[in-house]
């Protein structure tokens, strides 16, 4: 006679039955019954991370590519706290995630053991749904509710707290996932007002985000633009954009505030489609928080919670947009054959060599600001960005994306300073034998902050200030670091060497890191 199903197994089996197929984890003592259940239950793959920020960042990357949630498994409040920065990024990306956080046994909490903390308060800062799970008999139902909450538009983090005794006591079996509502329909008035704005004769902008920057959304927006003369622009940071040859080329709102203000200055009608209002990333002395022109009217066609594709179709019909438009096909860049290894040479190399179907995970920050223009004509690919501004997501994001899309090459465009936050995820890439090429832009500095010194009006920085933005004393040896985690690596210092090694890395399976000396 088999042992009865405990709460942990009830939860795992419910997750698997609800379509959750991967658990990104860094477990501890309170989660051991869940770990044992993962071993007993078929259908749930497990990916171990050496730091919780790697696990949460990977769950984000997985969701962006799989369009469904994975699970995390984190150890108590401190483990959750270690993962919070990348949970913040996942929240901003509206990534679906079932976040399982272990907790002390219910009767043990009152003794204030060293790892006791307010897990609900921590989880509430990043979660769309949070629930303690004090009952083993009900934990399956709690897990099913978490799946539904994570998948409810626009997608979000559902955090379920799992006390140790809930995990080990007899469970209540597998629970069905509640019905997940469809995305809401945008209001007819919103479509009518957008159509009127486009017919006003004033310069108009369709400002796109969320599902509107995927393939179908951009195609419909291009039809509307062809009819009305409106321009298209994507938000500065997007969870995923489908790009490359055959796709509608679209630029993002620039990050530097003066460039962003200049980019938006011509428009008097700004129509948001799955996007949030364009505001400054930070406040700067003497500069506005809202980046649109002071005379511009901002309207919302469809929010991230609403069906942006259907709303765009109704708007296209309302303005009499053509059924199709001829897509401009930017040329694929030719490889540069000479010159220094610098930012403006890297973009064309990427544009020429990105393989078809690749997934680009971009945490380039300063180095990669102009990569979009050079890669419009690249082979078709998906582009994932740092969405919440909390650096340290790039390597984990690429790791999760590679697990979600094992048949696609993943290329991580990675600033060196932010890579150091979660470099441990390279070890998971080696362990899982993931097909990821990491390009480290090794300028040995927090280069973005050097520009911000001037932007915020901090004058005449001296050696102490500049020293806090420098990573060259001592320099990080990325080749040795990567090899220490089990990832093959090379350093390149010239443009021809970069092209040769990048080609080699793309042609072979498994993880590979290239330190690009800038």
Can you describe this structure?
- The chain is an alpha/beta fold and 518 residues long.
- It folds into three domains: 162 residues, Thiamin diphosphate (ThDP)-binding fold, Pyr/PP domains (Rossmann fold, 3-Layer(aba) Sandwich); 132 residues, 3-Layer(aba) Sandwich (Rossmann fold), CATH 3.40.50.1220; 175 residues, Thiamin diphosphate (ThDP)-binding fold, Pyr/PP domains (Rossmann fold), CATH 3.40.50.
- The protein contains 21 helices and 17 strands.
- The strands form three sheets. Strands 9-13-12-14-15-17-16 form a seven-stranded mixed beta sheet, sandwiched between helices. Strands 2-1-3-4-6-5 form a six-stranded parallel beta sheet, with helices on both faces.
- Helix 1 runs parallel beside helix 7, helix 10 runs parallel beside helix 12 and helix 15 runs parallel beside helix 17.
- The longest helix has 15 residues.
- It is globular, with a radius of gyration of 24 Å.
- It starts with 6 loop residues before the first helix and ends with a strand.
- The mean pLDDT is 95.
- It is an enzyme of class 2 (transferase).
- Keywords: Thiamine pyrophosphate, Transferase.
- Its EC number is 2.2.1.6.
- InterPro entries: THDP-binding, Thiamin_PyroP_enz_TPP-bd_dom, TPP_enz, TPP_enzyme_TPP-bd.
- Belongs to the TPP enzyme family.
SS-based class? alpha/beta
Q: If you average the pLDDT, what whole number results?
A: 95
Strand content: 15-25%
β-strand number: 17
Question: Descriptors for this entry?
Answer:
globular, 7-stranded mixed sheet, Rossmann fold, 21 helices, 3 domains, 17 strands, 17% strand, 518 residues, 6-stranded parallel sheet, alpha/beta
């Amino acid at each position: 006679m088999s042992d009865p199903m405990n709460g942990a197994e009830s939860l795992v089996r419910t997750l698997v039955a609800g379509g959750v197929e991967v658990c990104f984890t860094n477990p501890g003592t309170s989660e051991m019954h869940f770990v044992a259940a993962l071993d007993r239950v078929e259908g749930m793959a497990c990916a171990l991370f050496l730091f919780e920020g790697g696990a949460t960042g990977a769950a984000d990357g997985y969701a962006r590519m799989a369009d469904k949630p994975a699970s995390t498994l984190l150890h108590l409040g401190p483990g959750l706290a270690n993962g919070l920065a990348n949970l913040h990024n996942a929240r901003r990306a509206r990534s679906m995630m079932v976040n399982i956080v272990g907790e002390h046994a219910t009767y043990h909490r009152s003794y204030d053991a060293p790892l006791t903390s307010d897990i609900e308060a921590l989880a509430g800062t990043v979660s769309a749904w949070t629930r303690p799970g004090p009952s083993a008999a009900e934990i399956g139902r709690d897990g099913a509710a978490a799946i539904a909450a994570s998948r409810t538009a626009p997608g979000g983090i559902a955090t379920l707290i799992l006390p140790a005794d809930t995990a080990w006591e007899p469970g209540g079996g597998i629970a069905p996932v509640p019905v997940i509502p469809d995305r809401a329909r945008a209001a007819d008035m919103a479509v009518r007002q957008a159509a009127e704005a486009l017919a006003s004769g004033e310069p108009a902008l369709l400002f796109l985000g969320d599902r509107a920057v995927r393939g179908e959304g951009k195609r419909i927006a291009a039809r509307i633009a062809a009819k009305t003369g409106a321009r298209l622009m994507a938000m500065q940071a997007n969870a995923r954009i489908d790009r490359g040859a055959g796709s509608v080329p679209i630029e993002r709102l620039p990050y530097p505030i003066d460039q962003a203000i200049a980019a938006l200055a011509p428009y008097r009608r700004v129509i948001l489609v799955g996007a949030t209002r364009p505001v400054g990333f930070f406040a700067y002395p003497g500069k506005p928080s809202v980046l649109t022109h002071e005379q511009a009217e901002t309207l919302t066609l469809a929010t991230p919670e609403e069906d942006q594709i259907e709303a765009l179709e109704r708007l296209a019909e309302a303005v009499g947009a053509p059924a199709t438009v001829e897509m401009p096909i930017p040329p694929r860049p030719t490889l540069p054959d000479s010159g220094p290894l610098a930012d403006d040479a890297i973009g064309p190399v990427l544009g020429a060599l990105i393989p078809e179907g690749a997934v680009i995970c971009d945490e380039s920050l300063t180095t990669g600001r102009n990569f979009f223009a050079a890669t419009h004509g690249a082979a078709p690919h998906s582009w994932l960005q740092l969405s919440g501004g909390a650096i340290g997501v790039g390597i984990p994001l690429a790791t999760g994306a590679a697990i979600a899309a094992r048949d696609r090459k993943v290329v991580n465009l990675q600033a060196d300073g932010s890579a150091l936050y979660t470099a441990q995820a390279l070890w998971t890439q080696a362990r899982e034998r993931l097909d990821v090429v990491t390009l480290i832009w090794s300028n040995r500095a927090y280069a973005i902050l050097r520009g911000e010194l001037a932007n915020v009006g901090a004058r005449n920085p001296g050696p102490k200030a500049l020293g806090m933005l420098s990573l060259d004393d001592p320099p990080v040896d990325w080749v040795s670091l990567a090899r220490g985690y089990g990832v093959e690596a090379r350093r390149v210092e010239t443009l021809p060497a970069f092209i040769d090694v990048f080609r080699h890395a793309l042609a072979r399976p498994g993880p590979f890191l290239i330190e690009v000396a800038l």
